[in-house]
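Researcher: Here's the sequence for the chain we discussed earlier.
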Amino acid sequence: MGLLDVLLGRSKPVKPDLDQLFGLTSAAITLQAATELRPTGLGSVCFSAVEGGAFTEIQQDLHTLLATESSRDSYGYTWLLSRHDPEDVTGLVTDLHAVNSTLEQHGFGPQLLCSLVGFSDPAGPSLALVYLYKRGSFYPVCKRPGEQKRDNARELEIAALLKNDLRIESDLSRWFPVWGAPGMAD
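Model: Thanks. This is the structure I predict for it:
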């Protein structure tokens, strides 16, 4: 960073740390102990697909290796969904880490947007813990059942609960909803 950056209040971008994803395992334990939230066994990685044979080949290899499912959202982003037994959060996180790492190692890191792990609550809103690749941080998204409305108070409660397990995104304006994301329970 230069002097001009300091004077203008610019900060150096946070370098992604994919190993932060493994914090989701302890976060799941914390959530189960303190709330009714339980892992769904679903998690996904979102990225901006690029044209070309190399990218298509990597995507096909990931499908084969990890038995992921692929879909596109209304914004044109690609989602790879991984399914595991709800009790196997470690296996799920390992799959998400493998997808992110593979894309990053092959030069497609700039296309990565986020990863998420879903949780359900029989008595209330579903939850996704979202990892922002470019920020190296997490945030919760609590979706009210059957609606495209968030429970912001619950999100703040969950963020406070998980502050020792995960690097929580401090800029609340970056806590984007992920409506219809594969892996997020309804």
